[in-house]
Automatic annotation (TrEMBL):
The keyword Nucleus applies. This is U3 small nucleolar RNA-associated protein 25. PANTHER family: ORF PROTEIN-RELATED, U3 SMALL NUCLEOLAR RNA-ASSOCIATED PROTEIN 25 HOMOLOG. It comes from Trichoglossum hirsutum. DEAD-box RNA helicase-like protein required for pre-18S rRNA processing, specifically at sites A0, A1, and A2. Component of the ribosomal small subunit (SSU) processome composed of at least 40 protein subunits and snoRNA U3.
Amino acid sequence: MGCNSQSEGEGSMLSHKDSSEDEDALNSLNIRPYSLLIRSLNTKELSGKPQRKRQMSGSESAQLSRPNTGDGTGRPENVAKENSELDGLEETAEDVDEADSMNGEEESDEADYSDPFEEHFANPDDLSLSEQIENLAKCGWQSHKIQYDGIGKAILAVPASDMQGGPANSTYFTGPENLKDLLFCARSPQNSKDLRTLTCLHALNHVFKTRDRIIKNNSRLAKGNPSEDLELRDQGFTRPKVLMILPTRQSCVRTIDTITALCEPEQQENKRRFQDSYMTTDGKILDDKPEDFRDLFEGNDDDMFRIGLKFTRKTIKYFAHAKKQDFDFLSSIEVVIVDQADALLMQNWEHTEYIFDHLNLQPQEAHGCDFSRVRNWYLNGNAKYRRQTIILSSFNTPELNGIFSSHVNTGGKIKFTNDHDGVILELGLVTKQSFSRYDSPTPVTDPDARFKYFTTTIAPSLCRYGKSPRDSAAQGILIFIPSYLDFVRVRNYFGCSPTTQNISFGTISEYTSIRDIARARSHFLTGKHSVLLYTERAHHFRRYTIRGVKRIIMYGLPDNPVFYREIVGGYIERSIAEGKVDSEDVFIKSIFSKWDGLRLERIVGSKRVGTMMRSVGDTFDFV
């Protein structure tokens, strides 16, 4: 999952992408990636190729990888564990060849201070940066709501001290090229290609600019007077500069294909090995699956991977090596791009959090670093305040908000949000849907409060069905459970509690074997099992069409609103069409707390969610 990029003579590894930086690459395009990102999210006009072919200069390396998803609950012991696919391509500053140095001599020594890259990364004022960090700790953020035509509304947050008490400057706020953090929660299969092209352009822009500066400074040092004291600070501790975190090998293939299409290298070393390892010729039949499922799982859907890329003047080398230490390669990351974050949430999100926790830490070893050329804000431990984070997701969640809010970029941050009509309006189902709110004092105690509400309010009502197993009313109850930990708790309750001792039930989770899944589905359809416990991750990875569903209890609302439509709309509509249940006998009940606001908004709509959260009543019915 991921990829990272490097410049100068540094290495990288883990879920990230690395490539070096060359100003000419994006200069030849005459574009600003952020502006292009904002203007193009809702269009199909971007071709994804430069206006003219450019010759790359310099050597660079990058790595793409995906940490082990584990069991979804534990802390990874070694996220950066060496992958057997990696080559031993250790790189040093000597990788910069003579041709690169000659190219550097032809460049102007004057920096373009109108370029946000120069102000934010290359030449920030150290004193000003320290003051920014101090003022941010004292004054916090100042937020503003903006409306972008064709995209939607956004919330822009900048350090309060930067506003100087004056009115908002619309030009300043609408300038995403100013290297702000970005959380975009409207990714879809329709705009995914454009987003991928734009983020890859931005990554290459950053890498190429860093690379060009290093080449230029190498040339100055080579021809400089030995008595002249040149202080050229243009590097980090290690080589990788861009980290891309991706969910599957197929996503990695698409990203690398986009990068190579933009770079147009003359040679690609180890390309056949990459194709054999990451591309699949297996013709998986996915025509009956939803579009978002095909977008994520078609091709090679393996989520255990890590790959390094090395860029030279004419060549891309696959399977480049990185630093041996677990997270040393993360010490100098300046741009993080997380694509399909909603899919990563369905894997082991703790691995993603682990990566962010280890970004921009001091490396455990020197790795041949030339400290005389390390930028001061690295040496002062301020790299984390310069790093930019870009997160692309189909929807927003507390986990994404947590990542986005807890990491501080002094350049500011912008979060795109949209109003939701609610998926309940998309259902062709005319039946009562009931939502019940329970009291939950804190997010930490929410699982206990939810379980108590379920066992005291919902479960007793199921007992009357369990006493008549031959009655059709006793059959077809599907209980949807988002969290696997909650699933285990409810499963144990059904297996051990005297309250549910007369209820026959089956279970389907992400860890259930195919054979057991088939048995559970069959027994549920025939009525041998009155109740079926079904997890959100099982639905995410399989998208089963479960037959025989007559009543649905949402133990928790799904993060993905599409799942509500597929389960409540699809399952019930099929049962009605097959004559297994009358529409007036259908029962749909969802329970929620005040901590489920984002989930509830996507299901009932932005106009209704506020009332449901604050109203005196605790039960809301929709027909």
